[in-house]
């Protein structure tokens, strides 16, 4: 038996497979799952819905504490609400995707969301897989397992493009998708506060040539090894 519930941090750029991998690992190991990108999207959705200028950091900071964001951590049915409204669909629109990097760069937003993330992780009874951009570096620097997923932009764009074509008529083509994800990664890596970065003690896995199932199996092995290494109570 583990001394404490295992905490797993999975970071990386957009489209590297963080969500798909984290959900599957958490489901198979009976752990919780937290999509931190969904939280930043939720606060961005609230700003847009309330007429806040998302390109004005002071305006965003002034109201960052207002929305109540609640994340459900069942990996088989993750949920996200803002002030009681289910926003799982609306946070995936192009408008939110286009604004989320600006909103998530505001320090007051990061402080607020980081606090939520730490509380959720600390209260997860069976451990949790938390995925995002700064989990291993800033949110949970003491995580038991830290993984940083990468993949080349072509592979990531092809994955995203296929996904968008399946769900959105008139979705952008491969080149536009590639440009958009490179632009978002640059904004997320270039911000001053808690940028997208690999923690020094994270293990990097390039998923370009791997199937999703291969990535999931590799992560499960790493997590199980970490669980075995924990001191017995
Ligand atoms: N190794 C893989 N091989 C092929 N397709 C993959 C692989 N990993 C993930 N995918 C697919 O790529 C798409 C993007 O994956 P996912 O949403 O998990 O990435 P992400 O890193 O969480 O992205 P974001 O940060 O933008 O939310 C999904 O359609 C997923 O099924
Ligand atoms: N830990 C995190 C998670 C996400 N973000 C920001 C930056 C991303 O572009 C955006 C959306 O994330 P996605 O849904 O694509 O995973 O949220 C962040 O700053 N820190």
TrEMBL record:
Keywords in alphabetical order: ATP-binding, Cytoplasm, Kinase, Nucleotide-binding, Transferase
For ATP, which residues are the binding ones?
A: 12-20
Q: Which Enzyme Commission numbers does its entry carry?
A: 2.7.4.25
User: Superkingdom, according to UniProt?
Assistant: Bacteria
Q: What class of enzyme is it?
A: transferase
Q: Identify the Pfam families for this entry.
A: Cytidylate_kin
Q: Which family does it belong to?
A: Belongs to the cytidylate kinase family. Type 1 subfamily.
Protein name, entry field: Cytidylate kinase
Species in which this protein is naturally found: Streptomyces carpaticus
Q: Which gene encodes it?
A: cmk
